Fold this protein.
Amino acid sequence: MRLAAPLLVGLLFAIGLGVSGMTLPENVLAFLTLRDPGLLLTMGGAATVTLLGSPLVLRRDRPVHGPRFVLPTRRDIDGPLVRGAALFGLGWGLVGLCPGPALTGLAGGSPQVFLFVAAMLAGMFSHYYFTERKSS
Amino acid sequence: MHSPLLASLLGGALIGTSALLLLWLIGRVAGVSGIVGGLMTAPRNDRGWRRAFLAGLVLGGAALLAFDPAALPDQLPAPLPVIVLGGFLVGFGARGGNGCTSGHGVCGLGRRSPRSLVAVLVFMTTGVLAANILRPLLVGGAS
């Protein structure tokens, strides 16, 4: 039961990505080359739901399963945030894939998607190895 | 799909609903890169839900394929070296910027986080630059 919740939520998340068309890099690139507003509606639709719903959920003392809500608390804008987001955007705009659609896309069995995910994991691990590990 | 724009909006609502469900049920943020990254950095007893969520993503991909074989990409619109470069930048950047499209764009904006708003504006800008300027240079031709 403890793992059923995140499993089913992940499944629903992937279906949302598929319905929105964001699992396909062509659609993401059409947005980034300003030919199709779809992604704006997807992100706007998703953020509207969380904007309206989060305050209601956070009115609870704790989640249904688990001791407390684990939320990011920082509000400062720093160099690593801007640099990281900038690099992320470059990779996103080069291929048209971000982490959610890439992992969902693994189910399609495309060797190219596997290669993208492997490179993405290598990028995450490099960041951990060269940056986070040193500072902790 | 009758109207692609309606599908975009409906898909977005489903994504937002799943993010909300994850918060309500287990109190966690549905940021995909953070969930993956935690498999490398989080304490061992904080990894089970991450694996379950990621397994759900892939299962959801399989469910999509069952309804529409064209729902997932077969070929990526870039040559292999660009796929590797793009994937590496996405992974490295998402960890450096503490989030990706889902964590900042869906969850962070919903919580009115100023960090997420800045991150979204920055990655949208560099995404547009990469798609319009870098891609034609590295991939050639219009996508």
Summary: Residues 114-138 of chain B form the longest helix (25 residues). Residues 18 and 24 of chain B are 10 Å apart (CA to CA). Residues 75-143 of chain B form one domain. DSSP finds six helices and no strands in chain B.
